[in-house]
Structure formats: structure tokens, C-alpha cells
Design brief:
The protein has 242 residues and is an alpha/beta fold. The protein is built from seven helices and ten strands. Helix 1 packs across helix 2. Bound molecules: 2-phosphoglycolic acid.
């Protein structure tokens, strides 16, 4: 079932997402969270940091798994998703670093690392709540539009649209990595609950297509309709076409 929650603006969207994460941790202090990077969840992570500082959330038993990482960037590279996650969230809260998992951008053997990532998710008991953003091209994680989608964690070439969209974080478009390691569609679907966040007018058309289009791997977000527990949180702009 798709549950759509409309919020006034980005601030309200971030608060609402943080409420969902906080409630998940309150219900299950040792829960497993699936986390996302990108611009959209930054406000949510700030909310979580504020609530941690106010003593309202304890992350000491929480385990986290991130969706993806650029291939070819080391964990301390400033554009890596490792760096992003520690800057935007982890170093400000009390989640134990050994419970934090992010695909590694420089694996010795890609296949072995991807299998390892899947195994660690299984060993942790699976993901209770997966936070997702959505690409303007309909990608989820870095599962890019195409004639087919891979199931488990894998190496993926990034689409031109994604490279262009993400170049805003790099000095030039040439510096954007051309590949990434991402959870696959099955990995994401195994999460017991998915909460997708979308903010801004540039996401409005894709949110409409997610809901209205037939399911197709050419728009990976359309697959989300098949998940039994999907919540879509939109602000006014992202929800303006639905
Ligand atoms: P954004 O990215 O939050 O920076 O818009 C979302 C995505 O590409 O999945």
C-alpha cells in the first residue's frame, strides 16, 4: 500500500521524516536503518542531530546501511558518501562506528565486496526502515533506468543525467565518478518499510510518474508501488502534480 504524506515545505518534510525514524528507534532500539545521501535527507539528519543533543534519541544500539557509494573514491575523499554521512550525521550522534555500513568505494574485488554487503545486511536481521531519495530520472539508490535491473548490491555505470545532477557537488563534471556501488532492487525491497523523501519542483513529475505510470525498469521508482509498506513524503512543490 502506498501512503502519501503531504507537507507544507522542506522543514516540515524533514521533521516528519525524523519523527518516523525516531518512532522506529523507540519501538525497536536495536533497529536497522537504511540511509540515503543526496541533498534531500540533510534536513532530516539535522533534525536527528538536534533530537540526539536534546536527549530524545539514543542511537547506541542502532545499525545502519547506506544505499550506495561512488566507485573509485576512498572513504576519506570529501565527495565520498562515507565522508558525507559522517559529516552530515554520524559524527554528531552516538551510533557506534562499527554498526555503520556503507559500500566501500575501492574494494579489492567488487563481486566479493557486494556479496559481503548483502551478507552483513542479512546477518543484521534485514533493514527495518529504508530512507530513499528519488532521482529526476527515477533512479532509486543508483539503480539507473534501463532494460533490466540487477537484484543485489552491484557495480553500476552512472547515467548521464545522474552525472550531471551530481556535478553540483564537484568542481567540474569531469570529476564526477562514472560508476557506483549500489544496493540492488531486491536489497531495497527486502526492507520492511520504505520511506521515500521528495522535495522541490524538479521532483514533481517523477513523483507523478511513480504513482501513475505502469511498472517499468526504465523508471525504477515505479517498482516501489509493489512494496507492501511504502510511504512517500512530499513537500508542496514535489507533490504539485499529484
Ligand atoms: P537528491 O538526490 O536528494 O540530491 O535530489 C536524490 C537521488 O538522486 O536519489
Amino acid at each position: 500500500m502506498v501512503n502519501i504524506i503531504r507537507t507544507e515545505n522542506y522543514q516540515e518534510l524533514s521533521k516528519h521524516a525524523a519523527d518516523i525514524i525516531q518512532a522506529t528507534i523507540e519501538n525497536k532500539p536495536d533497529c536497522v536503518l537504511g540511509l540515503a545521501t543526496g541533498g534531500t535527507p540533510i534536513g532530516t539528519y539535522q533534525q536527528l542531530i538536534d533530537r540526539f543533543r536534546e536527549g530524545k534519541i539514543d542511537f547506541s544500539k542502532v545499525t545502519t546501511f547506506n544505499l550506495d557509494e561512488y566507485y573509485g573514491l576512498s572513504s576519506d575523499h570529501e565527495q565520498s558518501y562515507h565522508f558525507f554521512m559522517f559529516e552530515q550525521l554520524f559524527r554528531h550522534i552516538n551510533v557506534p562506528p562499527e554498526r555503520v555500513h556503507i559500500p566501500f568505494g575501492l574494494p579489492e574485488d567488487i563481486e566479493t565486496h557486494c556479496q559481503y554487503y548483502e551478507q552483513v545486511i542479512q546477518d543484521a536481521g534485514g533493514i527495518d526502515l529504508q530512507i530513499l531519495g528519488i532521482g529526476e530520472n527515477g533512479h532509486i539508490g543508483f539503480n539507473e533506468p534501463g532494460p533490466s535491473l540487477q537484484t543485489g548490491t552491484h557495480l553500476v555505470p552512472l547515467s548521464q543525467e545522474t552525472i550531471r545532477a551530481n556535478s553540483r557537488y564537484f568542481a567540474s563534471i569531469q570529476e564526477v565518478p562514472k560508476k557506483a556501488i549500489t544496493m540492488g532492487i531486491r536489497t531495497i525491497f527486502q526492507a520492511r518499510r520504505i520511506v521515500l523523501l521528495a522535495s522541490g519542483a524538479n521532483k514533481a513529475a517523477m513523483i507523478r510518474r511513480l504513482l501513475d505510470d505502469n511498472i517499468t525498469t526504465e523508471v525504477p521508482a515505479t517498482l516501489l508501488k509493489l512494496h507492501p509498506d511504502l510511504t512517500i513524503l512530499v513537500d508542496q512543490e514535489a507533490g504539485s502534480e499529484i
